[in-house]
Write a structure and sequence with these properties.
CATH architecture of the largest domain: 2-Layer Sandwich
Strand content: 15-25%
Number of domains: 2
Helix content: 40-55%
CATH class of the largest domain: Alpha Beta
CATH topology of the largest domain: Beta Polymerase, domain 2
Mean pLDDT: 86
Low-confidence stretches: 149-156
Radius of gyration: 19 Å
Number of strands: 5
Distance between the termini: 60 Å
Shape: globular
């Protein structure tokens, strides 16, 4: 009986991972926790300890793209990277770095573009956007970062809350997270596997586009 229950839970986790992956791939959802909780509720799973890991959902996102979007996902990804590069070149004075699904290749249509900026003062970024008549909305985001002297959370990881400017891009939202200049040496954590998230500057993104055929 216990073995049957365990198998049922494994199957349900798999279904939740697949459903969450579809949401993230098709609806542009970027929050793993939100996606899997929503998928869990729809499938009748309310115990948070029984939900799939972020890493499992990321695997399912890649598989989903391979099965259902093998023809159009590469082009959608290319367009998002082109949008990212245009914004990064505009904001070059703030040392922009692309990160997240648009960089690692798991992004599909309508995915958010995540760019990290590094400035001495948030007002510098705000004034730049205002002076260039770029509409934006403001918010903030909490990042898991490598351990240093910053606040320590209950789960054993450091967190840093930073301001975020959201722009309306031609193919989806563009999120500009503004860090302090010295924070370039402070890696943020990958949402799926917990390792250090990759970052790429403008030159690296341009090279990536050239490598995938956008001359």
């Amino acid at each position: 009986m216990a073995k049957d229950i365990g198998n049922q839970q494994l199957q349900l986790r798999q279904l939740i991972a697949q459903k969450a992956a579809r949401m993230m791939a098709e609806e542009g959802i970027s929050d793993y926790a939100f996606a899997k909780k929503k998928a869990g509720r729809q499938l009748g799973m309310v115990d948070i300890d029984c939900l799939p890991t972020n890493a499992k959902i990321e695997e399912e996102i890649k598989l989903y793209h391979e099965i259902y979007h093998a023809d159009d996902q590469p082009e959608a990804l290319r367009l998002l990277r082109c949008d990212a590069l245009i914004v990064m070149q505009m904001l070059e004075k703030f040392n922009p770095h692309l990160t997240g699904p648009v960089l690692d290749g798991t992004a599909g249509r309508y995915a958010e573009i995540n760019i990290h900026l590094f400035a001495d003062n948030i007002k510098e970024v705000e004034m730049f956007l205002l002076n260039n008549q770029v509409p934006y909305e403001t918010d903030e985001k909490s990042y898991r970062v490598s351990k240093d002297k910053r606040s320590f959370d209950k789960k054993g990881g450091d967190r840093k809350k930073v301001p975020v400017f959201t722009l309306e891009g031609p193919n989806g939202l563009i999120k500009l997270s503004v860090f302090e200049v010295d924070d370039l040496r402070l890696p943020t954590k990958h949402n799926a596997n917990g390792g250090n998230a990759a970052r790429a500057n403008s030159a690296a993104v341009k090279a990536l586009l050239q490598l995938t055929g956008n001359k």
